[in-house]
Amino acid sequence: MHSQSIMPHLKVSILKLVMKTFLSRMILLFSTITSINVKDFVDAAKAQANVTRTNHIMWTMGDDFQYQFAESWFRQMDKFIKYVNKDGEINALYSTPSIYTDAKNAANGSWPLKTDDYFPYADGDNAYWTGYFTSRPGFKRFVRQLSGYYLAARQVEFLAGKNKTLPNTSKLGDALGVAQHHDAVSGTAKQHTTNDYAKRLAIGATEAEATVSSAFSCLVSNKIKGQCGGSQDTTFSQCQLLNISYCPSTEAGSSKPLVVVVYNPLGWNRTDIIRIPAYTGQSSNQIPQNWLVFQVTVPPLGWATYFISKEPKTERTHSDNNSLKDTAVDEVVEIGPGNLKMLFSSASGQLTRMFNKVTGVDTPIQQSYLWYASSTDSQQSSGAYIFRPDSNTPTIVAQSVHLDVFRGPLVHEVHQQFSPWIYQIGPIPTDDNIGKEVITKMTTNMVTNKTSYTDSNGRDFLKRVYDQRNDWNLSVNQPIAGNYYPLNLGTFITDSKSELSVLVDRATGGASINDGEIELMLHRRILQDDGRGVGEPLDEQVRGNYYVNINKLGGGATWRRTTGQEIYSPLLLAFTHEDEKTWKASHSTSGTMMETGYSLPLNVALITLEVGEDAAYSTVAKVELKKMFTGKEIKEVKEMSLSANQEKSGMKRLSWKVEGDGVDETAPVRGGAVDALIQVVELGPMEIRTFVLTFS
Ligand SMILES: *[C@@H]1O[C@H](CO)[C@@H](O)[C@H](O)[C@H]1NC(C)=O
Ligand SMILES: *[C@@H]1O[C@H](CO)[C@@H](O)[C@H](O)[C@H]1NC(C)=O
Ligand SMILES: *[C@@H]1O[C@H](CO)[C@@H](O)[C@H](O)[C@H]1NC(C)=O
Ligand SMILES: *[C@@H]1O[C@H](CO)[C@@H](O)[C@H](O)[C@H]1NC(C)=O
Ligand SMILES: *[C@@H]1O[C@H](CO)[C@@H](O)[C@H](O)[C@H]1NC(C)=O
Ligand SMILES: *[C@@H]1O[C@H](CO)[C@@H](O)[C@H](O)[C@H]1NC(C)=O
Ligand SMILES: *[C@@H]1O[C@H](CO)[C@@H](O)[C@H](O)[C@H]1NC(C)=O
Ligand SMILES: *[C@@H]1O[C@H](CO)[C@@H](O)[C@H](O)[C@H]1NC(C)=O
Ligand SMILES: *[C@@H]1O[C@H](CO)[C@@H](O)[C@H](O)[C@H]1NC(C)=O
């Protein structure tokens, strides 16, 4: 079963060997089948039945790399089934997951209710599969970035009207699908295979970019939707390399001002800060010297246009560049133009406190970079799958750091240089022959009772207790690696007063090893392989962001959900050059797919809040389809399975008895059926529904 797409699969060469011997032995056995072999089979089945509820057990056929000769597999299975059934003690048959599930259900038993997962997984005392949560962070970011881009691109493709003769987003969708493979985004493929995944993504992204560019051209062109076809009077560029500060169109020389069209893929009004290399009217092949930071407001599922031109020499009013060196008279440097403040010590250059002016939450906090040395133990070394530090105490990168402070009217920036390589975040030096697994740690004095929370695939947050699992007794042999969890959205800790939340910009690993602490693994550069099939050490360079906030207890959920959506779906930027007047005369500078003034409720952003997560937003939310698609008449609304491949009305749901005192979990709140005329979709907390709409 590959339902856990995040779990990479075992591919040990030793296993393959064992399997080959097994196969040749089977071939041998089947020519002279004896009762001993049938007995082995029956015994193995009975041993498994002994630890399984009901008398139905499942044996899966095949595995990674081991299911390639269907003919020989089936020939041998046919014989096995025949002789095992002749023996009569057990009944063997070819089956499917649904036949198996029906058989379990028909047994009328009661079942334990499981609401959590099995993380972290280990297949040996020192073999916790918690390294791949972070392995290849550059590739993980690439996949995340394009996933958000793909959603936005599909929206503008729909908005402008698909045109069969123009480029489309299918290739990017396909490449993203392939990248979900359990050895792709997990970072557990060889370098050359990873390069191939990245190449497919890049090809898909290039085509999607062309789609977006022509769709934008259509949207802003004042022509009726779907009528602008190939007549692209504007060519936009999009700067996919903003992550490394590379955006020729904002920097390149043009006598005309820069036009920035900003698209908001979220269903609510959005005010955000844009940061682009500053347009100086001159081309530059260098790393940009100046950055332009400005605030934009964009309607839901819509766009707004900004014009940037160089003013003839004026006084710099907002570039008071307060380098700490010049102003460090005070002990404490306060940062943050808004309500969230961060205090830094001028002596150490390190963060010392965070407080929220609105909520009054105020917490001493320290942030540091450290690294674990990768174990090189020949029995089990650290590698792409497995995280095994050779000591439980990480090495600190720097006690005091150089601090530069830049204050603008909109944003304040702090540049800390922990070491030459942390500043750039890579390449991690390994000339000392030590593999390094780099983390950042936030340390507070919060009393967290060994408890932290991590998201489950970006949806629910699950409670994690240090060295503890809910459903079984556990001895953790690796106090660090055995307490790492995968983060897709982020993590948080709470005490009686406040919540400290950290959100991530890509899938990564994280832990709360000591009370009041959160650590994120940022990067891994390892010199050994861990013997799980990659056969190569990990070596990648990377740069990234994470997002921190501090709220009153119970107040963090709203921030995590909305900010999480904004991180996943950043504003889409498209650049071109034109005079403002000329542009405005022939283009529409803003627009939205939705009815003007309508916006999705804040808790409907593909994700709603869980009951109890936030009092105001954990209720039934409503989406008015008519207002979402203005100018279009919805002829039919059909509810589908989540993946839209089956009508919901045709789906059968089995009912199961829950073990225990008969007190079921309270039934979750669910939205009702959609009225064909009113066309309002209700969503319960954490509910996801899929509809197919037919337009007239
Ligand atoms: C079933 O489990 C019990 C308890 O663990 C054990 O004593 C017994 O030998 C097992 N039987 C089989 C057939 O494995
Ligand atoms: C399960 O219950 C159904 C209906 O109550 C009954 O028809 C069936 O025989 C039961 N099955 C078993 C295995 O007890
Ligand atoms: C997308 O474009 C390709 C050609 O690049 C074409 O083969 C395919 O049918 C198109 N897909 C859709 C959904 O229009
Ligand atoms: C699709 O684009 C082509 C040019 O590539 C254009 O001739 C045609 O009119 C467009 N079709 C529609 C329906 O817009
Ligand atoms: C900001 O201050 C630093 C340190 O004094 C200086 O090196 C840098 O050139 C200044 N930058 C600008 C844009 O003025
Ligand atoms: C600490 O956690 C343990 C185990 O999860 C729980 O039983 C206990 O009530 C908690 N204590 C406090 C003060 O929350
Ligand atoms: C764990 O161990 C304790 C004490 O030995 C025991 O009471 C409890 O039933 C065990 N729990 C599980 C899930 O095995
Ligand atoms: C920046 O993004 C591109 C793809 O858009 C990726 O190939 C590259 O590795 C990224 N660079 C860094 C330093 O993250
Ligand atoms: C979104 O913002 C615009 C402009 O600020 C405003 O006119 C509109 O009413 C807002 N819409 C909603 C639903 O808040």
TrEMBL record:
<protein>
    <recommendedName>
        <fullName>Alpha-mannosidase</fullName>
        <ecNumber>3.2.1.-</ecNumber>
    </recommendedName>
</protein>
<feature type="domain" description="Glycoside hydrolase family 38 central">
    <location>
        <begin position="127"/>
        <end position="201"/>
    </location>
</feature>
<dbReference type="InterPro" id="IPR048534">
    <property type="entry name" value="Man2a1-like_dom"/>
</dbReference>
<dbReference type="GO" id="GO:0004559">
    <property type="term" value="F:alpha-mannosidase activity"/>
</dbReference>
<dbReference type="InterPro" id="IPR000602">
    <property type="entry name" value="Glyco_hydro_38_N"/>
</dbReference>
<dbReference type="Pfam" id="PF01074">
    <property type="entry name" value="Glyco_hydro_38N"/>
</dbReference>
<keyword id="KW-0479">Metal-binding</keyword>
<dbReference type="InterPro" id="IPR013780">
    <property type="entry name" value="Glyco_hydro_b"/>
</dbReference>
<dbReference type="InterPro" id="IPR037094">
    <property type="entry name" value="Glyco_hydro_38_cen_sf"/>
</dbReference>
<dbReference type="InterPro" id="IPR027291">
    <property type="entry name" value="Glyco_hydro_38_N_sf"/>
</dbReference>
<dbReference type="InterPro" id="IPR028995">
    <property type="entry name" value="Glyco_hydro_57/38_cen_sf"/>
</dbReference>
<dbReference type="InterPro" id="IPR011682">
    <property type="entry name" value="Glyco_hydro_38_C"/>
</dbReference>
<dbReference type="Pfam" id="PF09261">
    <property type="entry name" value="Alpha-mann_mid"/>
</dbReference>
<comment type="similarity">
    <text>Belongs to the glycosyl hydrolase 38 family.</text>
</comment>
<dbReference type="InterPro" id="IPR011013">
    <property type="entry name" value="Gal_mutarotase_sf_dom"/>
</dbReference>
<dbReference type="GO" id="GO:0046872">
    <property type="term" value="F:metal ion binding"/>
</dbReference>
<dbReference type="GO" id="GO:0006013">
    <property type="term" value="P:mannose metabolic process"/>
</dbReference>
<keyword id="KW-0862">Zinc</keyword>
<keyword id="KW-1015">Disulfide bond</keyword>
<keyword id="KW-0326">Glycosidase</keyword>
<dbReference type="GO" id="GO:0030246">
    <property type="term" value="F:carbohydrate binding"/>
</dbReference>
<dbReference type="InterPro" id="IPR015341">
    <property type="entry name" value="Glyco_hydro_38_cen"/>
</dbReference>
<dbReference type="InterPro" id="IPR011330">
    <property type="entry name" value="Glyco_hydro/deAcase_b/a-brl"/>
</dbReference>
<keyword id="KW-0378">Hydrolase</keyword>
<dbReference type="InterPro" id="IPR050843">
    <property type="entry name" value="Glycosyl_Hydrlase_38"/>
</dbReference>
<dbReference type="Pfam" id="PF21260">
    <property type="entry name" value="Laman-like_dom"/>
</dbReference>
<dbReference type="Pfam" id="PF07748">
    <property type="entry name" value="Glyco_hydro_38C"/>
</dbReference>
